Amino acid sequence: MGRETTAGAVARHLHELRDWLDAAGFTATVERPRGGMPYVRVGNRHAPVLSEKIRIDRYRADGDALWFFYSWGDPICPARETSRAAQEITNVLGNR
Question: Which of 3, 9, 17, 65, by CA, is between 20 and 30 Å from 55?
């Protein structure tokens, strides 16, 4: 069995996060701008003004592991901890 590429891991983690957020009642889509990195656009269904773009990048403080980040650059948690990321994001955007 082959190893997963970084791009494949990023896509997988973003789709998993989208699924968690969608199940929690938020709008969530994976978007990939032309020539840019993919991200999850997430919004509060009950307060559409509350939205965020979540991206994945390498986090130097954790040995260059893949982490989720808010659009303003703050780290959320390792990308392998999708449920934790979803909880942190719902805390920021409101639970309902």
Answer: 3
Question: How many domains, in total, are found in the chain?
Answer: 1
**pLDDT value at residue 5:** 86
Domain limits for position 35: 6-93
**45 domain-assigned:** yes
Q: What is the pTM of this model?
A: 0.91
Residue 22 CB contacts under 8 Å (≥ 6 apart), including other chains: 28
* Buried b or exposed e, range 72-91, using 16+ CB within 10 angstroms: eeeebbbbeebeebbebbbe
- Block means of pLDDT (10 residues each) for the chain, length 96 residues? 82 97 95 92 92 96 97 97 96 82
In a domain, 40, yes or no: yes
Which residue do the tokens 């979540």 mark? 54
Alpha-carbon 31 to chain mean position = 11
